[in-house]
Amino acid sequence: MSVVAEIRARRPDLPDGFEAHVERQLAAARARWPAGPEPDASFAELVVARLTAEPRIEDLYLAWWCRRGDPHAIAAFEAAFEDELRAITARFRDLPADELRQQLRIKLFVGTADTPPKIRDYAGTGSLKSWLRVTAVRSFIDLVRSTRAQRYEQELDEAELLGLGDPQHASMRAELGAAVKAAFAAAVASLLPRQRVFLRHAYVDHHTLDQIAAHYSVHRATVARTLASAREQLVTETRARLVQTIGIDTDELTSVIRNLDSRIDLSLSRVLAAPSGNTRP
Q1: What is the pLDDT along the chain (281 residues), one digit of tens a residue?
Q2: Residues 47, 60 contacting (CB under 8 angstroms)
Q3: What are the distances in angstroms from CA 60 to CA 42, 54, 64, 129, 154?
Q4: Is 149 in contact with 185 (CB distance < 8 Å)?
Q5: Around Cβ 111, how many Cβ atoms within 10 Å?
Q6: Closest Cα partner for 145 from 221, 241, 60?
């Protein structure tokens, strides 16, 4: 039974002319990727599962081929979208393009012990190119934030961050130091570019509100609001990440966050001292 007949057998309610639409796009896909495998029942199952009025058979074929883990499929995928991938990686200058591409390759086609390959999520409702663009941008943002958070965490000192330098707080420091460093570093990494840049000017360069405002041609009040919201976000997100990752009682958490809030200036001057990527907000 042909793959088109297989699709019809699984969905006898499909409208007239559906087979012709599938056959035209399948022919285009096979002509574009002659090294690809012959569509079989698993491809018919994928099409039926992703069925729309006019399914994007050519894109679904490439996604189905990639789902099989064939290195030739991955090479064909990357060749098909080379211009798009090059343009997207160029936007993320914190990391080398090769590293970004390799991490995306793993996410799309390999997955992890906890997460299946992302290519399995492609539903065929939009173009594979558009789907790749969204997936790649989200992946690169997460990767850059993670890398930035690791760098920030290395720069932090828990004694400075928490004010736990005296001996009576030794047990608390041992328990919370690593967790708070990681939570605060991730919170800094998640800030918007404008927030990070303004904070760097304020706490590393020691610029006044008026100096920052003049440099970026914005109102002084805009700078003040951005700095205030950034500080508030750092405290709020650090608290949320701590609650999520470790079990500490409310009183202890409140004490930690109070110390953190009073020492943000010192910590920011340390982690933001070496700018990376774009410096325009």
Answers
A1: 688 888 888 888 777 778 888 888 889 999 999 999 998 889 888 888 877 656 788 999 999 999 998 999 999 999 999 999 999 999 888 788 898 999 999 999 998 888 899 999 998 888 999 999 999 999 998 888 888 877 777 666 555 555 544 444 555 555 567 788 888 888 888 898 899 899 988 888 888 999 999 999 999 999 999 999 998 898 888 888 887 777 655 566 666 677 666 667 777 877 787 555 444 55
A2: yes
A3: 12, 12, 6, 11, 44
A4: yes
A5: 14
A6: 241
